[in-house]
Design a protein that fits this description.
It is built from nine helices and seven strands. The protein is of the alpha/beta class and 255 residues long. Helix 4 links the parallel strand 4 and strand 5.
Amino acid sequence: MSNEYHSLTQSFSPSVYPYYHKIMKKIIIITGAAGNLGKAAVEKFIGEGYYVIATVDPSNASHSFESCSQLEHHLVDISNETEVEAFVGKIASYADSTIEAAILLVGGFAAGGLAETGQVQLQKMIELNFETAYFMARAVFRRLLTQETGGRIIFIGARPALEAQEGKDLMAYALSKSLLFKLSDLLNAEGKKKNIVSSVLVPSTIDTARNRKDNPSANFDDWVKPEEVADTLAFLLSPAGRKLRDTVLKVYANA
């Protein structure tokens, strides 16, 4: 493993990089970095000049990243609130640095309408899609409150959470994702005076190998590409995007 990468079991040491804190200006946290969208987002923000701190689930610890001086990754169980707090505390300890943004990509999908959705199915989706986002957003938000510059938190929503006709057969998924919109509103209300802004980006079907396999008869050209979603995430942190408040961006392409 290259020295550019660190997990929670492999502590970051400023002495290894004596000029690290002087060089690094903009930290962006990206959770779920091993996924298709995560990889695209990591590549995009490295290209934008950010220092990317990516999280990978410990169950996916075998995933490797190409060596890059603008990237480090941590193995973090985002569903564990204590572990999330320790992770953000570690990042916050980096001297002379600020967290510009956190992009929260961890999540999952499950089909099933009302008849198929009981406590087990509902709780699983809430834990995966809402609690993982809440724990990280809470820890990051508290850090942003201490920064003079504020910062940004971006969630990934879902169209079934906005449109009942699409969500009725995806009950647990739609309900769990719908909580992110309310959480974003609440964070915006609390963070307004500190220039802390929360947004929700809502993609339609993302063009991935798994989605192509699950929907072989679909017109893949109608789907949104991971790189296009990453471009929109970057827009939210651009000078123009920073003017937006209480934002829900729908990235549907033609789907």
